[in-house]
Amino acid sequence: MRIATFNINGIKARLPRLIEWLEETQPDVACLQEIKTSDETFPVKDMEAAGYGAIWHGQKGFNGVAILARGETPVEVRRGLDGEAEDEHSRYIEADVRGVRVASIYLPNGNPVPGPKFDYKLRWMQRLRARAAEIWAEEVPAVLAGDYNVIPYDRDVFSVAAMADDALMQPESRTAYRALTGDGWTDALASRHPAGGVWTYWDYQAAAWPRNAGFRIDHLLLSPVAADRLVEAQVDKETRGREKASDHAPVWIELVN
Fold first, then answer.
1. Is 34 flagged in the annotation as binding?
2. Is residue 201 annotated as part of the catalytic site, yes or no?
3. Which residues form the signal peptide (predicted)?
4. Each residue of 56-103: pLDDT tens digit?
5. pTM greater than 0.90 (yes/no)
């Protein structure tokens, strides 16, 4: 079972690239972030034509997450996180697909630091951890996939100095991320590439892609049952180099059935 995460950076703008990637790689589940479209304008017909059922939590022009499943419609479990009723951002959706609990996550960026956006990021991470604990208690195979906007370790960035002041690398961000892995969730990509140097994001600016000046912020965290089934974790790096591509590359895992 192949489960992927892909920050598409605007599903309408990148629709040809998304369909192309789905047809070429045929993931069983694809978690999308930054779809940047309202619920009413999500291109569900295009997903169905590509062979995928879909659920989504949209927001016009910003944020937005979705889960696609090949040949079926994901069974929605939850949209949004508890703990902050006034939060109207569309950043979390969760579903069951073929016996696996899957969440698509778009964590707040948090810049500038310090400030209210960074405070919101940290509160959101606390809320995610609370939901992760509830899923953990169900003892189901689970995958928390998405753009976490956190660079976990120095080995996950092309230049520590270049990102030192960014919210993605602040000690508080890293501590919150490591709290999840400390709770027992397995960082799939890190487990297969412990030396680091594997990027999932390259900025559009400063020739980041041709210089390979990237970093790793797209993660799939696995519950113990899912981690026991993990056989591979990789990045579809080539996708980032295509015309009108997202600034993220898809990341995927393979689980044995």
1. yes
2. no
3. none
4. 999 999 999 999 999 999 999 999 999 999 999 999 999 999 999 999
5. yes
Helical axes 171-182 vs 116-138, angle rounded to 10°: 0
Which residue out of 52, 92, 106, 201 is catalytically annotated?
Answer: 106
CB atoms within 10 A of CB 114: 11
Count other C-beta atoms under 10 Å from residue 205's C-beta: 8
Query: If DSSP states are collapsed to H, E and C, what string results for 91-125?
Result: CEEEEEECCEEEEEEECCCCCCCCCHHHHHHHHHH
| Residue 248 annotated as binding site | yes
Residue 257 has pLDDT above 90, yes or no: no
Domains of the chain: 2-255 (3.60.10.10)
User: What gap in Å lies between CA 200 and CA 250, rounded to an integer?
Assistant: 7
- The response to whether 147 counts as a known ligand-binding position is yes
Mean pLDDT of the chain: 98
pLDDT digits (tens, 9 = 90+) for 139-188: 999 999 999 999 999 999 999 999 999 999 999 999 999 999 999 999 99
Active site (annotated) includes residue 248: yes
Percent of all residues in the chain with a pLDDT value above 70, rounded to a whole number = 100
Does the annotation list 193 as a binding residue?
no
Active-site residue (options: 57, 92, 147, 219): 147
The active-site residue, picked from 57, 89, 219, 248, is: 248
Torsions phi, psi of 192, nearest 5? -95, -15
| Catalytic-residue membership of 183 | no
